[in-house]
Specification:
Blueprint (H helix, E strand, L loop, with lengths): L10 E2 L5 H4 L27 E4 L5 E4 L10 E2 L15 H14 L4 E5 L2 H4 L10 H16 L3 E7 L5 H7 L6 H16 L6 E5 L8 H4 L6 H25 L4 E7 L3 E3 L4 H23 L4 H10 L9 H7 L4 E5 L4 E3 L8 E4 L2 E4 L5 E2 L5 E2 L1 H15 L3 E5 L17 H19 L5 E4 L22 E3 L11 E3 L1 H11 L8
Parallel strand pairs: 1-17, 5-6, 6-7, 7-8, 8-10, 9-11, 10-16, 16-17
Antiparallel strand pairs: 2-3, 2-4, 12-13, 14-15, 18-19
Helix pairs in contact: 2-4, 6-8, 8-11, 12-13
The structure holds 2-(hydroxymethyl)phenyl 6-O-phosphono-beta-D-glucopyranoside (P53).
């Protein structure tokens, strides 16, 4: 009997983001990004934004807090900022891509650093050296038959746009972003076909991510409205520049189960899930859903909307839904603070049926099949799992090996769930790119200790290390999955 495999042409690869992987923060004419001013940290020490007030005072706040009006990002020479070197893709891309090729990747997800192309965000001309860098990267990928999958914006904004325009709170940022998109769509027309506009659009909220100073609902939702417009305009433009472009959205898909069959718990869970669905509703259907309009009304948010906005949203609906999947949540109408856990920076009730990672994220492979079904049943467009994985502390043995069986076990279960969703539920799934396929900086905590990779990188939480790459045990395991298109799993 022939072994079961994934559909022919399934995209297998890994995922990264510039701010956590690329480094070279001032190389080749790159400008500062907001994320270049956020410190490292660990589970007990939150990452801090460092800034200068209008009076020239140097201060720090967490990402949850607002920055005073007029404050500008500041890189403090006495602090450690993990984005500055990260795990240095900038100087290691040839070696890294060769390793991805050895694992059998046929696609690779990465992001373009906006401030590498437009150092200030509002520059009249793009930075040629920055454009040339990504040319080299894409050429190297294509030489190895690896399709680039590009996130246009992953969690940051040129610092100048945050400092002088209040980032996405300002409608002018829409124009700056669309210009950036036009430049990259044109430049990489013959090299890149798979795109996503904004990473995890549903969790964007802080100064580092979207450049806003105040985080009150009015500012936040106005900024989100601008981001929706920018994304829709980019999708439309990307299709005009190359009709073959596949342009998706990207949502952080942490869906919730009701704690019990008590109808109040079910209603809580519906409300929780709407916070994900809202973004898909806008970007797939091209309009705000009515439940969100009602919610905004209750919040007292009054969006400043132009007459042409509705048509812009309608004309720029996405080709596919990309999403990250790490965990599920539990919604309860009878909140018991003692039973709450912190997962993905959200406070959710604990699921007694699931184990959690060392960082408190629930591990729920069947939840991935459930997610795929829920999304597909509602939107009926192709999906792409562009992040999934286990953040864990790895042990480097004396002989240099890393025996990450826990990671293999995690992937084995999640890949089976994906297969079931395709085979049993009939969902359309384009591909799978596990997060941090090579070790990189954690977005949440700023640590290196929280590792996701098949490839180990010698670097610690303070930025010490040789940056030497080595294969973990999971490297060969994933290579076998990819090269057999899943057959090695005995599905
Ligand atoms: P880290 C919060 C909630 C869900 C996903 O996360 C998140 C975050 C930010 O921490 O991030 C996504 O590194 C994101 C990646 C990030 C990855 O998940 O905190 O798209 O940039 O690194 C994993 O363990």
């Amino acid at each position: 009997m022939t072994k079961k495999t994934f559909p022919k042409g399934f995209l297998w690869g890994g995922a990264t983001a510039a701010n956590q992987y690329e480094g070279g923060y001032l190389s080749g004419g790159k400008g500062l990004s907001t994320l270049d001013a956020i410190t490292g940290g660990d589970v007990n020490t939150p990452r801090m934004i460092t800034f200068k007030t209008v009076d020239g005072e140097i201060k720090r706040v967490t990402r949850e807090e607002s920055l005073p009006a007029g404050a500008v990002g500041y890189v403090d020479p006495n602090q450690y900022y993990p984005s500055h070197v990260a795990t240095d893709f900038y100087n290691h891309y040839e070696e890294d891509i060769a390793l991805f090729a050895e694992m059998g990747f046929n696609c690779f997800r990465m992001s373009i650093a906006w401030s590498r192309i437009f150092p200030n965000g509002d520059d009249a001309q793009p930075n040629e050296e920055g454009l040339a860098f990504y040319d080299k990267v894409f050429d190297t990928l294509l030489k190895h038959n690896i399709e680039p999958v590009v996130t246009i914006n992953h969690f940051d904004i040129p610092m100048h746009l945050a400092d002088h325009y209040d980032g996405w709170a300002n409608r002018k940022t829409v124009d700056f972003f669309v210009k950036f998109c036009e430049v990259v769509f044109k430049r990489y027309k013959d090299k890149v076909k798979y795109w996503m506009t904004f990473n995890e659009i549903n969790i964007l909220r802080s100064w580092t991510q979207i450049g806003i100073h105040s985080t009150d609902p009015q500012t936040l939702y106005q900024a989100k409205h601008h981001i929706f417009l920018a994304s829709a305009l980019a999708v439309k433009l990307g299709h005009e520049i190359n009709p073959e472009n596949q342009i998706g959205m990207m949502v952080c898909y942490v869906h919730s189960y009701p704690e019990t069959c008590r109808p109040e718990d079910v209603m809580e869970s519906i409300q929780f899930n709407r916070e994900l669905e809202f973004y898909m509703d806008v970007q797939v259907h091209g309009e705000y859903p009515r439940y969100k309009l009602k919610h905004l009304e209750r919040l007292g948010v009054n969006l400043d909307v132009s007459p042409e906005d509705a048509a812009i949203l309608k004309a720029g609906t996405v080709d596919y839904i990309g999403f990250s999947y790490y965990m599920t949540a539990v919604s309860s109408s009878q909140v018991d603070e003692t039973k709450m856990v912190i997962g993905n920076q959200m406070k959710v009730a604990k699921n007694p049926y699931l184990e959690t990672s060392d960082w408190g994220w629930s591990i729920d492979p069947l939840g991935l099949r459930i997610a795929l079904s829920k999304i597909y049943d509602r939107y009926r467009i192709p999906m792409f799992i562009v992040e999934n994985g286990l953040g864990a502390a790895d042990t480097l043995e004396a002989d240099g090996s890393i025996n990450d069986d826990y990671r293999i076990n995690y992937f084995d279960k999640h890949i089976r769930a994906m297969y079931d969703a395709i085979e049993l539920d009939g969902v359309e799934l384009m591909g799978y790119t596990p997060w941090g396929c090579i070790d990189l900086v954690s977005a949440g905590t700023g640590e290196m200790k929280k590792r996701y990779g098949f490839i180990y990188v010698d670097m610690d939480d303070k930025g010490n290390g040789t940056l030497k790459r080595s294969k973990k045990k999971s490297f060969n395991w994933y290579r076998d999955v990819i090269t057999s298109n899943g057959a090695s799993l005995n599905l």
